[in-house]
């Protein structure tokens, strides 16, 4: 059974750095072909893909946000971490992590999401 | 970056009606187009992958078609539980992108 769960602060101040953790089970990121992405959704708005990390440690980022994002993994803990620097109120959103594979690009399993509010 | 444009943005429909949602890509993406359903305060759920392949456990009234730049999600005999926002997503090239969403309201 595949599950993913996001965790992190519910509130951050403008200019601070956000650190989110995706803890998963039912698969391993050391298995060839496995990938985990981060996706966000501002309140009432559409989904936006942010970043992906692959089983071989390849990393990919949103074009518009790549200077602010860092994705990493801890295979032994079954975790993927996303950091986003210089947070702004427009970054207020629910942040999801989701699984895909290198061969199958669809997101077949998602976490429940975590709402992050950026406010002073 | 590939832009996905869905239509319509909103549709109000009655139960048992047939619904069609379209997604147009700004360039050829082959069949690397996927559809998700998202209900309020829930995470998206995969319905259709690679344009026409139903994901495990998805009711048979949901189907997908298309290739290249034009894709369609069809819901046959709509049920009240299908009230949700539907998104298309392309994995043909990075960065991945999503459509703006189509909200279905059940009358």
Give a written overview of the molecule.
The complex is a heterodimer of chains A (120) and B (107). Chain A is globular. Chain A is mostly beta strands and 120 residues long. In chain A, strands 2, 4, 5, 6, 9, 10 and 11 form a seven-stranded mixed beta sheet that branches. A four-stranded antiparallel beta sheet of chain A has the order 1-3-8-7, with no helix packed on it. The N and C termini of chain A lie far apart (40 Å). Chain A contains no helices and eleven strands. Chain B has 107 residues and is mainly beta. In chain B, the strands form two sheets. In chain B, strands 2, 4, 5, 6, 9, 10 and 11 form a seven-stranded mixed beta sheet that branches. A four-stranded antiparallel beta sheet of chain B has the order 1-3-8-7, with no helix packed on it. Chain B is globular, with a radius of gyration of 13 Å. The mean pLDDT of chain B is 97. The interface between A and B is medium-sized, with 22 and 24 residues.
Mean pLDDT of chain A: 97
Computed over alpha carbons, the radius of gyration of chain B is 13 Å
List the total number of helices of chain B. Answer: 0
Measured by DSSP, the beta-strand proportion of chain B falls in over 45%
Largest interface: A-B, 22 and 24 residues
Q: What oligomeric arrangement do these chains adopt?
A: heterodimer
Structural class of chain B: mainly beta
Number of strands of chain B: 11
Tell me the Rg of chain A in angstroms: 14 Å
What portion of residues of chain B is helical?
under 10%
**Per the principal axes of the C-alpha atoms, what is the gross shape of chain A?**
globular
User: What is the number of helical segments of chain A per DSSP (H or I, 4+ residues)?
Assistant: 0
The SSE order of chain B reads EEEEEEEEEEE
List how many beta strands of chain A DSSP finds: 11
Structural class by helix and strand composition of chain A = mainly beta
Unreliably modeled segments of chain B: none
Averaged pLDDT of chain B, please? 97
In the predicted model, the low-confidence regions of chain A spanning at least 5 consecutive residues are: none
Largest sheet of chain A: 7 strands, mixed
Approximate helicity band of chain A? under 10%
Ends of chain B: how far apart?
A: 37 Å
């Amino acid at each position: 059974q595949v599950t993913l769960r996001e965790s992190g602060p519910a509130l951050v101040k403008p200019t601070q750095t956000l650190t989110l953790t995706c803890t998963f089970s039912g698969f391993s990121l050391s298995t060839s072909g496995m990938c985990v992405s981060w996706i966000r959704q501002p309140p009432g708005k559409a989904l936006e893909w942010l970043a992906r990390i692959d089983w071989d440690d390849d990393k990919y980022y949103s074009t518009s946000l790549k200077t602010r994002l860092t994705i990493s993994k801890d295979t032994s803990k079954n975790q993927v971490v996303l950091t986003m620097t210089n947070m702004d109120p427009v970054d207020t959103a629910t942040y999801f992590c989701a699984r895909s594979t290198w061969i199958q690009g669809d997101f077949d399993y998602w976490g429940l999401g975590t709402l992050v509010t950026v406010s002073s | 970056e590939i832009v996905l444009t869905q239509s319509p943005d909103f549709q109000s429909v009655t139960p048992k009606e047939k619904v069609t949602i379209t997604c147009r890509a700004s360039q050829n993406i082959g069949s690397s187009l996927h559809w998700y359903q998202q209900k309020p305060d829930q995470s998206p759920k995969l319905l259709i992958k690679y344009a026409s392949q139903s994901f495990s456990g998805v009711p048979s009234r949901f189907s997908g078609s298309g290739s290249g730049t034009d894709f369609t999600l069809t819901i046959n005999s709509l049920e009240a539980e299908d009230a949700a926002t539907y998104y298309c997503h392309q994995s043909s090239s990075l960065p991945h992108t999503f459509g703006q969403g189509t909200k279905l309201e059940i009358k």
